[in-house]
Amino acid sequence: MKRIVIQGGSDGMGRGMGAAFLERGDEVVVIGRDERKGESFLSAAREIGAGGRAHFVRADLSLVSENRRVVREIGERLPAVDVLVLCARHFLSERRETAEGFEYTFALFYLSRFLLGHDLRGLLEKGERPVIMNVAGPGSPMGEIQWDDLGFERNYDGLAAQMQGGKANDLLGVSFAERYGSGPIRYVLFNPGSVSTGFSGEYDEMTRFHVEAMKRSAKPVEAGIKPIIATIDNPPAEPLSAFVEGRRMDLVGESFEPRHARRLDEVTRELLSR
Which residues form a coiled coil (predicted)? Predict the structure, then answer.
């Protein structure tokens, strides 16, 4: 039995993975912001006789303080973690800052994944064949790090903010593996392709039109999560790997440049120390 923590696990692909893991006998903690969706997950678990192995932690993961609370709560519930799945994101057509002063997309899509991965490392190192599965967008030609304006205080664009988050997560994987690669944790970056999830977000009219078109053409959640689960169960031996729809990709190019990864790691730690 694996002990699995899923960031963004009360909806979409996270919910689908949580259900699949429960059905095969694993223990699952899902983290999400919506109490009703969390209760729905727990109710579904009880219906299949898995109520004792299902947990929901309600949290606003765009807040640093909430991520740190979640880490403490998981430590109180589980003696070890075998798998950490990172898949929470929320699109915003208009810029928003969190109560802690971070741009929302940067905080939820990147900072939360940074915090959970690093702060749950101790529990992961106690797990069996521990894996961090970061479901982001490796392999995408779009996006870049706005080094002089990470929070998009100038010229905010919702898609550009999401694409920056994807690139930041690529570099997060590089820096994590560089720092802890001699340990047992395997860090996996996974691009599932276009999957018909809830597409959580607050969209302007034109963006919503495109999102609805994507939903109609995208693969179902069941198909999207299948290669992710297979990779979790049989991760590569290397400290860091990346996949696009189940196909392994080379860790080359600007997306995986160690210099940039170290720079982002340093900037992130400085931001979090404020």
Answer: none
